[in-house]
Structure formats: structure tokens, C-alpha cells
């Protein structure tokens, strides 16, 4: 077993361990099915779905249903929490709605994108390795658990809290984040659909303000979900509010920005247009109050990651 395989095996066990910790802290105050906290059951379901989907995916060496499985897992987790938890109040329905809308939109968007492209470049190497491919599916289970954890804990906590002014802030953050993510994805999809842009990268619209505006939107919307969930949480379950921090760390430091920046640098590094775009455009957070600069007149057409 080489170093990459050993690292992947370790990643699987660490992800499972973190899932167990999340199940324990999120279960405080959770509704129960017999003696078992429903929150823990939902976490177990989340990982089980990934591992079941991994089996045919590994046999076919295919990542085509990876993102769709992730989206469906969010929907299954929310549905299970609603079905087995206390009678939903306005906060519970609102949390269920925002997570469901986001998961349904992103899961189907990513699945269609992979189907059109025929593959997902993130998986080209790892799907030939059992442990590395399994690690990707296991990490998706952890991703669902930690990102939706605060919402699920709030759905399953019997201490209901009426909606208040702070919830307008949370909903507003979610709406803004969702709008930014959807707009950024739509702009890139439209750009890539034009044959003349085959070897170019996108530098207009939201992509003039940030090199990864879809990630800006995703982090913002999960902050909104945490704000909506917080009033219903107590004790150790408050630790599930780590959700937006986890999203930010994973996207900024692990599997999002670093991988895409490396791929873009390998493809366009050294080209004047690309280097100019990197100099004038923040990697993630827009420089508020400072309008994005236009491409230099001498820049050639810019190649989209």
C-alpha cells in the first residue's frame, strides 16, 4: 500500500470518528426512537447511504452519481428528522425548507454538469484506488453530517422557540448566499455552453469580483442556517453550529479553492490574461467598496476554470 492509499485509509477512519463525535454532541436533547437518539440514527443513515452508493460506483469506476447521492442524502436526512422528531413548528419548517431547496438545486446542478462532461476531473485519479475512492464517499457523509448538523439538531430538539428578529438576519444571509451561489453557477454554465469559450476562463459578472464566488455564496448561506438553528439548541448540541466554519475550512483550505487553483495554474499559468486576472481579482472574498478592474486592453481573450 503506497502513501496515498495509507493516507486515504486514515482519512476514512478519521471521518468516521468525527461522524461519531458529531452524533454524540448533536444527540443531546434530541428526540428518541426507543432508547436511541434520532440525531444519531440520521448520522448513521447519512454514512450508510454513501457506503451503499460506493459499491456500484466502485464496480463501475464511476463518479457520475456522487453529487446526486449527496443531494439525496440531505433530503433523506431532513425527511427522517421531520418524520421522527417532535411536531414541526415554524422554525423547523423554515430550516427544512432552506436545506431542502439548497440540496435539491445543487445536487441536480452538479449531477447534470458531470453528465454533460462525461466525468468529474476531481475523480480521475482517485476512482482507480479503492481506499481513495472510498475516502471521497466517506467524506461526503461527514460533509452532510457537519453542514446540516445544526439544522437537524434544531429539527429534533423538543424545546421550540418562536421566530424572532434574529431569524430575519439568518434568512437574509441564506437568501443572499443562495442567490450568489446560483448566479455564479449559472454564469459559468452559460459561459461554458458557448463553443468560442472552450479554452477561456470566466472574468465577468460575479467572477470579476471573486475567483470563486459560488463558494462565497455557499459559506454565507450556511452561516444563515446556523443563525436560524441557534435559538433551538442547548448544551452540547450548540457545537453543531460549527457547520459554517467546517464549510469554510473545507472549501478554502482542503477540497475547494486549493484544487481548483492548482488545476487553473497548470492549465493557464504564465499566460498574461490569466496572471492579470489573478492579480486584480481576490481568490475568494470580494473587496467591498472597490469595483473590479476590467481586463487590460492588451490582454488576450481570457481562458474558465
What can you see in these coordinates?
This protein has ten helices and two strands. By secondary structure, the chain is mainly α. Helix 2 (38-60) packs antiparallel against helix 5 (130-156). It is globular, with a radius of gyration of 20 Å.
Could you name the key traits of this structure?
globular, disordered C terminus, single chain, 305 residues, 10 helices, mainly alpha, two-stranded antiparallel sheet
* SSE pattern: HEEHHHHHHHHH
Relative helix content:
55-70%
Name the poorly predicted regions.
Answer: 296-305
Molecular shape = globular
Number of domain units:
1
Q: Care to count the β-strands?
A: 2
Q: Distance between the terminal alpha carbons, to the nearest Å?
A: 33 Å
Q: What is the mean predicted local confidence, pLDDT? A: 88
* Cross-sheet strand order for the largest sheet: 1-2
Largest sheet: 2 strands, antiparallel
Give the radius of gyration.
20 Å
Name the structural class. Answer: mainly alpha
Estimated share of beta-strand residues: under 5%
Count of DSSP H/I helices: 10
Topology at a glance:
Elements: H1 3-26, E1 32-33, E2 36-37, H2 38-60, H3 66-84, H4 90-117, H5 130-156, H6 165-192, H7 213-229, H8 243-254, H9 257-268, H10 272-280
Antiparallel strand pairs: 1-2
